[in-house]
């Protein structure tokens, strides 16, 4: 191709680039490189060498498949192995070899003795080496492959420029069939040299930055100093007179117990009292004339007093059947239907009467996340269902011993008082409490849990 026909050269270059991109396999791409490059530049022989495995001649012009045992192929493999490792020159300082970039003419006289001696036997006088791979694309690193073109006539500057552009396209197409580098390799290449040292220094500084130790705990808003309403006697709850969270005043009926058993006992006690009174009357009348009956009168009087006390006690219990509130506040319980028909014992808690304005926070900190906490330390409540709302509180007490929670894990009970100047949360509000400990390096905070697990597993 002459230099006087630039349009045809440009068209052939674009066609070769397209053919390289459309190649469906490495073999098809190698065929395009060693045979169809002739459409752009004249040459007599072409060889494609790759570093796959230990390095091999992948394609030879005019042959469907190169024979690795052939003398020509073996000599070409030694030549290409030397050319791909040979630097193009020295840098500006003159001490560091430059990486292979673009095409370069092969200096036959500069080759080793065993290669230069057999050159005339296998190749024409002039040859050009075209590096393919990272060097051709990014201008650095060792090439993954190379293309050797040989002919008798010297190579012209405009032909070297065409090979420069063609090498980029061939290298890109060849790299598409190469194995994908693992992320570890890409990361290692990105962190090589000065970049790696800078990243390590930045990571070291970041790991030493002090951060606050924090932990999350399940939390619930509970009433502060509530009045506990208990069952006044053994019995069965017959009905509830109020609803959950209802406001009550002193004297407001709360719930009532079943009166059937007490009324039966009351009737029996009254009949026994009437019988005792009649016996005492008869004994008192007979005592006027008989000393023996006078002695029995004292026994009859004692029995009469016993039955009277029993009637009074039963009457008092009937008066306590209906439980009323002793103070004002809000009735705190889940559901009255859960209690109706349920047998209760004397002193069993049924509900609470609490002041909505006097609440505190009850948190359960898992034993595995225990922090050095003290009374007065700050914590923050993040209520469920209100992502934009939070409440500040101060720790008022921390349990010394972990106990089993209703969710089945060991945790420390922590109570906290809400700070003044903010709206009080609703009683029963659930959420997560973030507790704050001391300051520690970031690396300690990140490795705190893994180190604790490793210590338990290894038994340090």
TrEMBL record:
It comes from the Bacteria. Keywords: Coiled coil. Its main location: other. It is found in: Cell envelope. Residues 259-286 form a coiled coil. The keyword Coiled coil applies. The keyword Mitochondrion does not apply. This is HlyD family efflux transporter periplasmic adaptor subunit.
């Amino acid at each position: 191709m002459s230099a006087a026909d630039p349009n045809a050269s440009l068209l052939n270059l674009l066609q070769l680039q397209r053919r390289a991109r459309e190649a469906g396999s490495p073999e098809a791409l190698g065929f395009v490189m060693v045979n169809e490059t002739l459409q752009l530049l004249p040459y007599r022989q072409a060889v494609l060498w790759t570093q796959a495995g230990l390095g091999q001649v992948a394609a030879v012009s005019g042959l469907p498949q190169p024979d690795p045992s052939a003398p020509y192929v073996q000599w070409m493999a030694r030549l290409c192995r030397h050319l791909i490792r040979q630097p193009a020159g020295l840098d500006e300082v003159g001490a560091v070899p430059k990486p292979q970039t673009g095409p370069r003419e092969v200096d036959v006289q500069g080759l080793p003795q065993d290669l230069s001696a057999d050159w005339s036997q296998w190749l024409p006088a002039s040859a050009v080496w075209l590096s393919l791979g990272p060097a051709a694309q990014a201008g650095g690193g060792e090439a993954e492959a190379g293309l050797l073109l040989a002919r008798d006539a010297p190579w012209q500057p405009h032909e070297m420029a065409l090979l420069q552009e063609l090498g980029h396209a061939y290298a890109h197409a060849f790299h598409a069939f190469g194995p994908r580098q693992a992320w570890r390799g890409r990361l290692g290449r990105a962190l090589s040299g000065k970049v790696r040292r800078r990243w390590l220094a930045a990571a070291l500084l970041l790991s030493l930055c002090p951060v606050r130790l924090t932990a999350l705990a399940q939390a619930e808003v509970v009433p502060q100093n509530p009045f506990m309403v208990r069952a006044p006697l053994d019995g069965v709850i017959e009905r509830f007179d109020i609803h959950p969270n209802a406001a009550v005043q002193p004297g407001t009926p709360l719930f009532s117990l079943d009166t059937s058993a007490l009324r039966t006992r009351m009737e029996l006690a009254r009949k026994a009292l009437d019988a005792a009174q009649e016996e005492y009357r008869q004994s008192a009348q007979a005592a006027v004339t008989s000393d023996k009956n006078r002695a029995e009168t004292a026994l009859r009087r004692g029995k009469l007093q016993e039955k009277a006390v029993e009637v009074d006690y039963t009457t008092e219990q009937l008066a306590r059947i209906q439980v009323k509130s002793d103070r004002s506040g809000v009735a705190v319980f889940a559901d009255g239907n859960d209690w109706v028909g349920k047998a209760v014992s004397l002193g069993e808690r049924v509900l609470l009467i609490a002041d909505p304005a006097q609440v505190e926070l009850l948190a359960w900190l898992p034993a595995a996340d225990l922090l050095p906490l003290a009374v007065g330390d700050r914590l923050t409540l993040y209520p469920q269902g209100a992502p934009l709302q939070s409440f500040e509180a101060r720790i008022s007490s921390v349990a010394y011993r972990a106990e089993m929670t209703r969710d089945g894990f060991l945790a420390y009970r922590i109570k906290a008082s809400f700070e003044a100047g903010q709206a009080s949360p609703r009683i029963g509000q659930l959420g997560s409490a973030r507790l704050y400990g001391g300051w520690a390096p970031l690396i300690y905070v990140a490795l705190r849990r893994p180190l604790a697990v490793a210590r338990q597993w290894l038994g340090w």
